[in-house]
Structure prediction request, 238 residues.
Amino acid sequence: MNRKSVAEGMADPTVLRVPSPQARTVEAALERMHKDTGRRFDIWVMAFHRVEDAVSVRQRLDEEKESRGVALVALVDNIDQLRASEAMAMSAEAMAAGIKAVFPTSVVPTVLDRILAILLDRQRELAAYAVVKRQREAAALLEAKLRATERSLARKVYGALTPFTGEVEAAHTLERALAEFERLYISRVLADVEGDVDMALKRLSISKSSFYRYIADHKLHHLVRRVEGGRSGNDSGA
Prediction:
């Protein structure tokens, strides 16, 4: 799905820095998201004193459906003060908790911008997937409703036939029910006219070609007593 189609079904992900004029606190950022649920795939860049604080915010985001898709990038003060192995271990733990990336607050802006560009592409893919998933769920629901309607119509068709044909086996689809109706109705007409094709054509108000097609489709040759030219029903070649 391209970016244009994503924009039609979901707001294009953006980078939101917290604090910033747009959202000075986590509460303000959440309120912004609740007002516009299309924003749930944004990237939040936040500064923390400790990684534990970032994990706490991530857990809070995960508690609400609208904010679970937010990508949280943490800028942590004390990472620069740790040994390399400790910093790597702390970053790994944070990412295991759902934080997308962890950097020291001293990260070079150009490096951070490149990482954010990559994450934005990832968030667009997630937004596109959300749109497709929602459309598929809606289509599945509609299909289920249509099938239920089809079954209901099929039962009504068979119910209408019962006074003329007696109880018949129920079909699974409306198409099968209508086909059965055709077979039973044409059989009844042929029985009434004792197999006379000319009289059957008048009763059915259909063309000869359509009549022969119905006879062939429903295998009713044995009910045809005569066709034009004096041929028997079995020799009609319908």
Summary: Residues 141-235 form one domain. Helices lie at 3-9, 26-35, 51-62, 84-96, 109-165, 174-192, 197-204, 208-218. The CA atoms of residues 24 and 166 lie 76 Å apart.
